[in-house]
Amino acid sequence: MEKMRSSINRKSMARLHKTKVMIAGEQLRLRLHDGKLIKDRRYHLRTYPNCIVAQELTDWLISNKEAPDRATAVCLMQQLMDHDIVHHVCDKHSIFKDAKLLYRFRKDDGTFPFNTEVKVFIRGQRLYEHLITGRDSILQLREEQGVAYQHSIPGCQLMDWLLQNGETESRRQGLEFCRALLEHGIIQHVSKKYDFFDSRLLYQFCINFRRRRHLSELLNETERDKKEGASVHVLEDNHADSPFVLPKIPPQEEHSGFQSAVQPTKPLKMIPNVHQAILNSLQLHASGYLPPATLSSAPVVRCNPKSVLKRNVTCEELLSPGAPFIKRVLTVMGDAVGWGFVIRGVAPVYVQAVDPGSPAAAAGVKVRQFVCQVNGRSVLHLDYLQVTRLVMTGPRTVVLEVMEPLG
Q: Which pLDDT belongs to residue 256?
């Protein structure tokens, strides 16, 4: 029985890793297209469309801090080749070589293998986008056995949604689809105790499809898996690299996009790069929350990471003449994975975090800036949920008017 469970865990982790490689590969492909590195190239009197020179790609990975050196860059690209995301234009080389050879993304030439795994991944990603961006999202803060879980949904309600939106023709098909999502590491029971059932049991997405992924993560995961034999993955909604956290929880006192269920005696610590980490110091469950047994005798306390603000600021103070703030207008051109900043608070909303390599950082968005306008609309007296909705439902290019402290 133990061997069977271990085998299932290994298969689940392999599928989860495959999903993350596909996300990272697609994000890389879009970035290379934006940078005009992927283009038609001529070699030996023949034109190869939508390809890239391996040496140029290696240079790009290093200059964009995706890899510290050429050897690592080659290892990263080999991962994409091993997962049928990238291939040599003539399929003469199964190994990625740092040379003047032409390679191409299979999505650009129509040779991407649309097997069962890929189809589940694509449908899971589409479902995630529908549920996380909906105005009245059914992913909400709910409790199961005395533990609160954010962005969760009962299995029966998810089945209802799939039927109402034409994603499945019957509850039986919906059940098969949701179980496939669970097997491929896209969703999970909140405490990882059950398979998927058409019931009141709560489920969550394990993957934030919008989080910007650095290719080096793939290599680090592979090395760690070899050493540990298996990995423990955590929910990614609150990952430090998350592009634009879209909270779907009722406004609380702090109006934070980061919330968890923790013991009142255990302070919540923010640990960078918690991706697939075992947080022993907090005694967290693999799902990112304490097991129900741990909290059975204690009330649920929702704790938020510490605000970056040095002190609270009111709208009146921001608007008062001579206030120690400077106004800036920033244009953030979102990419395929988001804008790259996290907001928090209510009247006024402020920037809590910025992804260093994101469009927001490139546009000049900084922590502790107060958001005054979004695309010409005043948002000073709104909370972070309303501002989030404005950004997410608006154009990809967002014009922000912000106020930041002098000095």
A: 34
Contact 184, 120 (CB under 8 A): yes
Taking the C-alpha atoms of residue 173 and residue 198, their distance in angstroms, rounded to an integer, is 11
128's enclosing H/E stretch is helix 116-133
Give the count of beta carbons closer than 10 Å to the beta carbon of residue 71.
11
Query: pLDDT tens digit string along 225-241?
Result: 544 443 334 455 444 43
Among 217, 261, 267, CA closest to 239: 217
Domain assignment present for residue 224? The answer is no
Q: With 80 as the cut, is the pLDDT of residue 20 above it?
A: no
Tokens representing 27?
């994000």
Q: Which domain holds residue 73?
A: 8-105
- Flag whether the pTM goes above 0.85: no
Tens of pLDDT, residues 166-181: 888 899 999 999 999 9
Residue with tokens 């998927």: 196
State whether 95 and 148 are in the same domain. no
Q: Which single residue is written with the structure tokens 């640990």?
A: 271
Q: Are 93 and 166 part of one and the same domain?
A: no
Residue 312 makes CB contacts below 8 A (sequence gap 6+) with none
Other C-beta atoms closer than 10 Å to the C-beta of 260 total 20
Render the burial of 189-207: b for 16+ CB within 10 Å, e for the rest. bbbeeeebbbeebbbbbbb
**Quick one: average pLDDT of 73-82?**
91
Is 229 within the bounds of a domain?
Answer: no
CATH of the domain at 59: 1.10.10.10
CATH of the domain at 336: 2.30.42.10
Q: Could you tell me how far CA 330 lies from the centroid of its own chain?
A: 24
Instruction: Please tell me whether residues 23 and 83 are part of one structural domain.
Output: yes
Is 167 found in the same domain as 88? no
Q: Domain total for the chain?
A: 3
Instruction: Give CA–CA dist 132/246, Å, rounded.
Output: 7
Residues of the chain with pLDDT > 70, as a percent, come to 73
10 pLDDT tier (thresholds 50, 70, 90): low
